[in-house]
Design goal:
Elements: H1 2-31, H2 38-60, H3 70-98, H4 103-126
Helix pairs in contact: 1-2, 1-4, 2-3, 3-4
């Protein structure tokens, strides 16, 4: 079982990477050229990237509908991702406001913090085989 999760993790890296690039790009566009407050930008970009991550994840990594219906999976992905978003926003705010790290670098660091949460909840809860 542990080997299976390691294999999933290595297959999740490119999927998470694509979602992270989407997240960062959308965040950058909303925050800098459009001058939307970074908390709102981070939330919007995270929600869009989470949807992309879900669809890429079930296409390339996880077996969909093994434990829950498609609607149930999407609901659970957004539920646990909501917690990931809170982690992301706390890390982003801490890095940018307390540590005085540039906002874009703070966003990248925050993504790294929430990456493990997102993978773990998908692998061990939502898409865990019966």
């Amino acid at each position: 079982m542990f080997r299976n999760h390691i294999a999933h993790l290595f297959r999740y890296l490119p999927v998470g990477g694509v979602a992270a690039l989407m997240d960062w790009f959308i965040f950058w566009v909303l925050t800098f050229p459009l001058e939307i407050y970074f908390i709102y930008s981070a939330t919007i970009s995270f929600v869009i990237a989470t949807l992309a991550n879900y669809f890429l994840g079930i296409k390339f990594i996880f077996v969909s509908e093994t434990r829950f219906s498609k609607k149930g999976e999407i609901f659970l992905v957004y539920l646990v991702s909501g917690m990931g978003l809170v982690i992301n926003l706390i890390a982003l705010t801490f890095a940018s406001n307390i540590l005085d790290i540039h906002l874009m670098l703070s966003k990248i660091l925050a993504s790294g913090v929430s990456f493990l949460w997102n993978f773990a909840t998908r692998a061990f809860f939502i898409f865990r085989e019966r």
